[in-house]
Amino acid sequence: MFILFFAVWVLLNGKLNWEVAIFGAVISALLYLFCCRFMHYSPKRDMYNFKRLPKLFAFFLTVVGEIFRSAFALLPYIYSHKEPDPVVAGFKTERVKTETGRVLLANAITMTPGTITGSLKDGEYLVHCLDRSMAEGLDESVFVEKLERWEEG
Length: 153
Prior knowledge:
By secondary structure, the chain is α+β, with helices and mostly antiparallel strands. The chain is 61% helix and 12% strand.
């Protein structure tokens, strides 16, 4: 987290010299201590999150791939005036256990063209799908698999 704070400091300054580096290191250290004290961060937690970063990156690549795949799946509805069969689908997944994972899943579903997460409560999702075929397999999607691996660490 300290490195992230320092990197943001350098990016916002637009240059790196001794003055910016020293002042940025002090401010970043104070901000990191504040987070450790009042937001329950710790170097141990940071290392745990750092180890999970490649799996999170793989999840985001999967989201980007699914966005493109879904966009191409919507082309027949746009160009051939094919009538969609909209549906509101509800599902619950026990595989995604953390609140962060559940929110990431809801956001991934919403970012995918043709679907919008309308509600998330206690692990139960309510998703509006442009077509009935898009509602199939939401609870066992590739997003769920990637998030399950990410939560395992």
